[in-house]
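Encode chain A's predicted structure.
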Amino acid sequence: MSTQVTVVGIGADGWTGLSARAKELVEAADVVLGGDRHLAMLPSESDAGDQTRESWPSPLREGLPALLAQHDGKNVVALASGDPLVSGIATTLVDLLGKDSVEVVPALSSVALARARMRWSAESTEVVTLVGRDPHLVARSLAPGLRLIVLSSDGSTPAEVASLLTTAGYGASPMTVLADLGSETESRTDGVAASWGDQAAPDLNVVAVELVSSGATVLGFTAGLPEGAFDHDGQITKRDVRASALARLAPLPGQLLWDVGAGAGSVAIEWMRAHPTCRAIAIEAREDRSARIARNADALGVPALQVLTGHAPEALTDLDAPHAIFIGGGATEEGVLDACWSALRPGGRLVVHGVTLETEAVLAVRYAELGGELTRLHVEHAAPIGTFTGWTPARAITQLAITKADV
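Encoded structure for chain A:
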């Protein structure tokens, strides 16, 4: 496809707020694409001559190739809210057409306008977009004192965010809903999460939150969350050895993890908490544990975690090739290690844990064949011994860590 598209950002103030260059681009276009709201901001079609104006298809991503092919070779302008690269159509168009086929002319983003209204600096805020996304994403960013700019999906989002904050122990957090930013109908509503209720807001809104803990369990952003942060039935990788495993799995932006024998999903969840673009698939044989993993993922702010119920190695077929694999259980099952090693991308990291002599023997053989790092982890916790205190050892963990580039 050779279509060239210019994406013009337009604010809530509409046509009058566009720069002279942006107006020229729109007026010179053979075709203008956009949402109904954006197209309605333009001068009447009778003033546009032979210009074609079309709304986005639904579903958007699936319908775009055919729409763009229909206008191949024409001068196409697409309208988008504010900065088209902030949860905007420009990102989708670049993915489809390539960066050399898309020019972007941004207007002020709703993020910039919201920070200006709140007098919050860019470096003191974190942006969370819920446009077309699960509101549980907010949970990943919960920390006392942090400021959030939340891009809403629609008018129901502020109430959903308030409910989530209250449930997580951040009900005392001040919330401000800024609606129709930059327009004549711009409005501001202030309140507190716990008393927000189900009040609706205009569909075009941004939520500003200053996080205040009211009895919340504060969770850090490094690996090794306490077991109590997860719902589990005892089948969970304990925090100290989990931190060791994640250090060797080395989460990187955009990379995919397989968590095989996921249990409570703790390794996959912490992998995804490491960066907003980290992806993971949790493979678990038991349906009740799979359901528990999904609940844990929501509660800890990574609702996009893919949970797959099935037995390895059969369940591993037809999955995207991973950059890292953690095997927390089932390493002695016939074919599991071979399937994982074969699927791992070059440069990928494999970490396997074992607590039994049988698993340890398997890992020793693999270490002899492939090298890597073979470690025994011993953790002891202080506990009462009568009126005194002593050390209570946990089961030793044998850990094999291999980088595929090593062999």
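The CA atoms of residues 166 and 194 lie 5 Å apart.
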